[in-house]
Amino acid sequence: MNKNYKTDFPILKNNPDLVYLDSTATSQKPKMVIDGIVEYLENNNSSIHRWMYDISEKSERIYKKTKEKVCEFIWAESYKEIIYTYNSTYAINLLISSLWISWILKKWDKVLLTIAEHHANIVPWLILKDSIWIELDYVWVDENYNLDMDDFNSKYDENVKIISMTQVSNVTGQVFDLESVWKLKREDTIFIVDASQSIPHFKVDIKKINCDFLFFTWHKVFSETWVWVLWWKKELLQNLKPSFSWWWAIWKVTECSFTSASLPDKFEFWTQNISWAVSLMKAFEYIESIWWFDVIEKYEDELVQYFLSELNKREGINVVWSRKEKNRVWVFSLYLDWMHSNDVADLLAEQNIAVRSWKHCAHPLFNKIWVNHSFRVSIYIYNSLEDIDKFFIELDKILKF
Q: What is the pLDDT of residue 401?
């Protein structure tokens, strides 16, 4: 490993003893992102749309530029296909409610998910199920935690109108083969992808996945919290009705009717947080500065191999993933038979090692595999071999205890 990326992250400089292994929940922020937010707030902070003064005009251009940068990274065609939302739960709720009121999703239509979904891609569908009586079904995973394509084929019947799947499991780190899914998809089915755990780790190409909607968060990849991106195919976006009302989303109002604004404004909240969007753009620029995802993937492969080699030296540690090195990102969920994962996480925290414990908002998966909890280690570009060594030194003490 030729570079120590820790030096790019002020929080790790200010907390030199911290071993941060919880990046799947929230990543740390590089100085480039922090400085970008400060520079915007000090020089251009203002509301956008209908501007008549200089800094508002500049903010408008900056806001548009942030969306153009998103397009570059996911290979979208137009910034008008990019919607910013508060979080993934808000994004999927916005999408679901718009599909509903646009009569694209109706009673008895079926939605096909995976058993490995985060609750953000399950609970909103369950709420709609109680409201309009749609059906939900789940594609199982196989013994290596890949998508079970035989199970997919058996459940993908003529009633399925929506396929909504994560690209990477936040529990197992497994990268699902979504290209195989879209190759089997009919034209009458809408394909939604949760890229929250894939965008931080590798290049995501919406044309390659061939999905209709894609949403992801950027607080997991160097940016500020409460920045989520919802990408829609323009032809679908034009036909959807907005399910929430706010000022800039509406073009004209009479006593009896209203006219929605043009894309993408009709789906966005009316007072945008430009500094969030700036943090998003700066996060992309940071990735560009370290030579894109090629560096992240190469660095990740080295850390994954090292972590697995250290893990395989030890007995008594159960894993919630395939021990294979391929088709996975640097997320590792572990558990001990004789100690609750919350207690393990507490003991590690006493040594300034940050991991996450419990069921990681993926209860259906844990229920299926008959596991009650785990402690999750998630590594990122600012981690090192020394961080992994420190983790295993403390875990060894727990194993001896």
A: 78
Lowest mean pLDDT among 222-231, 265-274, 385-394: 265-274
- Put residue 370 in one of left, alpha, beta given phi > 0 → left and psi -120 to 50 → alpha: left
Rounded to 10°, the helix 123-132/88-101 angle is 30
- Asked, as a colleague might, if the bond just before 242 is cis with ω within 30 of 0, I would say no
176 alpha-carbon distance from chain centroid:
14
Could you give the CA distance from residue 320 to residue 60 in angstroms, rounded to a whole number?
46
**Residue 289 to residues 3, 31, 80, 114, Cα–Cα distance (Å):** 13, 12, 26, 35
Active site residue 256: no
Distance separating alpha carbons of residues 276 and 45, to the nearest angstrom: 12
The set of residues, in sequence order, having a beta carbon less than 8 Å from that of 199 and lying 6+ positions away, is 73, 74, 216, 217, 218, 220, 221
User: For 270, left (φ over 0), alpha (ψ -120 to 50), or beta?
Assistant: alpha
Question: Has residue 150 got a pLDDT over 90?
Answer: yes
Which one is catalytic: 71, 211, 256, 361? Answer: 361
8 A C-beta contact, residue 278 and residue 36: yes
The pLDDT of 152-161, averaged and rounded, is: 97
What pTM, to 2 d.p., does this model score?
0.91
pLDDT in tens, 248-287: 455 566 666 666 555 566 677 667 788 989 999 999 999 9
Q: In terms of pLDDT, which residue wins out, 252 or 18?
A: 18
Q: What distance in Å separates the CA atoms of residue 285 and residue 13, rounded to the nearest whole number?
A: 21
Residue 369, CA distances (Å) to 151, 177, 242, 363 in order: 16, 21, 39, 10
> What domains sit in the chain, N to C, each tagged with a CATH number?
5-32+292-400 (3.90.1150.10), 33-287 (3.40.640.10)
Cα–Cα dist 158/69, whole Å: 38
